[in-house]
Specification:
By secondary structure, the protein is mostly helical. It has a single domain (about 10-195), classed as P-loop containing nucleotide triphosphate hydrolases (Rossmann fold, 3-Layer(aba) Sandwich), CATH 3.40.50.300. The protein has 9 helices and 7 strands. The strands form 3 sheets. It has a 3-stranded antiparallel sheet. Strands 1-2 form a two-stranded parallel ribbon. Helix 6 (about 110-120) crosses helix 7. The radius of gyration is 17 Å and the shape is globular.
Amino acid sequence: MGAPGSGKGTQTSIIREQIGVPAISTGDILRANLAAGTELGKKAKGYMEAGELVPDDLIINIALNRIEEEDCKNGFMLDGFPRTVHQAEALDARLLELGIKIDAAINIDVPDDELVRRLTGRRVCKDCGVSYHIVNMPPKMEGVCDVCGGELYQRSDDNEETVRNRIAVYYRQTKTLVDYYKAKGIYSAIDGMKSLEVNSKEILEIASYS
């Protein structure tokens, strides 16, 4: 859990390599469909470009279908899902049917001004999807991906106006999940201003992978 720009995707990428379970990002799945021009992508486009949450029914179906795939049988991480209590309840109901329990719900806390700085400076490779930051983690050659040589671009939802709206939407709709997971006794929060290495270690310790 965490606001846009808090580092959820970065942490799941790091931890995926360490413990060998898939990281499921509904945002990545939606963006792939958007790029491919699928029906799902067309439905989601307007919401994503405005910084609004995509309707629950679309997100729930994407996430629940993904966790039933073969590579999730030994565990998985959810990146940015669920984002509403309704989504969390749908997830819990399906996991109960599958005999699976959530080990931890971890929130990465980052101040709003830092979130804006991070997101407006983010650049993403059009070909392989690797993320950079013009200040924190710039590519070796401006505008070119270090990994594959692809062109880097700023996502349409990373301009400042949309970023601030995304943060506002997060506080309005997603923060209610804190109380939901606190009530279940599996909620933890970490300081997203610490280093990536420290945050990764904390997440693994909370999830009992240390």
